[in-house]
Amino acid sequence: MAWLVCVPLAAVDCRDQEKPQADQPARALPVPINPPPCSWYAPTSISSTRRSPETPSYVRQFERPGWLDLGLEQRSRFESLENTYLFDGVDSSHFPLRTRFFFGIRNILDPFRFAVELQDSTQLGGQIPENPSTDNRLDFLQFFGELHLSNFAGLNRPLRLRVGRLSFDSVDRRLVSRSGYRNTTNNFDGVRLKIGEPVDDWELEFFSLWPVIREVESPDTPDRSRNLLGFSAAWRRWRIGILEPYYLFLNQDESAALGRSVHTAGMHLYGPIADSRFDYDLNAALQWGREGSAGRRAHAWHAEVGYTFEHDWKPRAAMWFNYASGENPDDDRIQRFDSLFGSSSTFYSFAGLFNWQNMINPTVHVSLNPGRLGLNFLYRAYWLANSKDAFARARLHDPTGRSGSLAGQAFEFSAKRALNSYLTLDLRYSHFFPGSFVDNQGTAPQSDMVSVWLTFNP
Predict the structure, then answer these.
(1) Which of 431, 344, 428 shows the shortest CA–CA distance to 379?
(2) Residue 307, phi then psi, degrees to nearest 5
(3) What is the pLDDT, as a whole number, of residue 238?
(4) Residue 28 has pLDDT above 50, yes or no
(5) Whole-angstrom Cα distance, residue 352 to residue 340?
(6) What is the rounded CA–CA span in Å between residue 279 and residue 275?
(7) Residue 25 burial by Cβ neighbours in a 10 Å radius (0-12, 13-18, 19+)
(8) In the chain, domain spans
(9) Which residues contact 311 (CB under 8 A, 6 or more apart)?
(10) ∠ CA(196), CA(199), CA(203), 5° rounding?
(11) Nearest CA among 326, 457, 309 for reference residue 5
């Protein structure tokens, strides 16, 4: 997902305004970044945590005919990896290509709606073998029927019940995500119920899902051995911030290699700090359950504070801290946090070296938006929360803990520019400096990642 940070927008206070009555015309589908005059919506200042809209942003909702949703998006990317710690350390220059097509019907058959989204993911050239993170031939990304009630139970907010194949973001995308940057995309088979929308003072979300197993060539199939149950809510009447509690339960039955259950309960809270130009974003999560005969106790959190300067370029400076617990081999409990189906690239490492597990990760971030250009500069440092646990994505592990805990540091940069109404150009660069933990594992070169892509959305 491209990182383009915008100025925090305060919602117009609806406490002094009446909401439309139930017998008034139903509202159109919301466009979150352009809320109506009276809206409870206020976006977080961290664009990577903003959820994709219910209808993907590349889709055109036609007024004539007023029942048709249609969209096409093609992303062509060049990516170069040098001394990467992924894919067994191969150097590679390759071309990940991703094409999406969306067709939906609304209004004309209400309360019943329908949509299908296709995606083709292919990687050309390079030294990285085909795998489900890079290649997934033409298949259904989404295919669902929807029961849509514009004014559910007189609450003056919509209800959406979707059944079928689904792909969506939940809460701040750290645990359930549509995965924007990766060439392939997370999706699920199941049921999702949502009451409310971002302009409302509260929302509720429930789902029961089976993760879809992505196949390179053959049709994708749901993994019936794993079931993900979820609940989330949003409460926007609190003046100090928007409150989003959530609960997830992943159950893997014993027909799989190892039966396990993972309960995750957490809270996401964000908003401006009083009437200042400071803002904050917090997320804390606890996990418990079992893996085989072992109990699970893990936790993770994110804390961020930022300041947006008063200037036409909207410069924002921020500091944040990511933490996720790691495994202790001297203990009989599972203590490594499980990031489930969340995004990682923008949150933790442009190069994809880290995700939300066994990490201590302070970061400094500066962003600005001169004209139609979005720029981001980041410094990240990485320690292992437990030096006896692994630097998992690099496949490095010292169970004695004698290699230390400093995994490394990274300087990163990204740029995004809309060339016209149909084309957007993005650039990312990441340079990783290995730390003592990596040095003590053997060969420890510095690594680089460069990624440039063009997105076409007619």
Answers:
(1) 431
(2) -135, 125
(3) 87
(4) no
(5) 16
(6) 10
(7) exposed
(8) 47-456
(9) none
(10) 30
(11) 309
Phi, psi angle pair for 431, to nearest 5°: -120, 125
Task: Give the whole-angstrom CA distance, residue 21 versus residue 310.
Answer: 38
In the predicted structure, residue 18 carries a pLDDT above the cut 50: no
CA 69 to chain centre: 24
Looking at residue 87, its amino acid is F
Indicate the DSSP class of residue 154: G
CB 294 within 8 A of CB 343: no
CA distance 315 to 317: 7
Backbone angles phi and psi of 439, in degrees to 5: -55, -40
Task: Identify whether the C-beta of residue 425 lies closer than 8 Å to the C-beta of residue 419.
Answer: yes
Q: What tens digit of pLDDT does each residue of 102-122 get?
A: 999 999 999 999 999 999 999
HSE of 384, CA atoms in CB hemisphere, 13 A: 29
CATH code for the domain defined by 47-456: 2.40.160.100
Q: For residue 376, what are the β-bridge partners?
A: 367, 414
Q: Please give the structure tokens belonging to residue 153.
A: 């139970």
- Give the Cβ contact number of residue 42 at 10 Å: 21
Place of tokens 């119920």: 193
- Tokens representing 455 are 């997105």
pLDDT band at 431 (very low <50, low <70, confident <90, very high): very high
The answer to whether the Cα torsion of 366, 449, 211, 121 is positive or negative is: positive
- What is the identity of the amino acid at 430? S
List pLDDT tens digits, range 66-81: 899 999 999 999 999 9
Nearest to 382 by CA among 316, 433, 441: 433
424 pLDDT above the threshold of 70: yes
Query: Average pLDDT of 245-268?
Result: 89
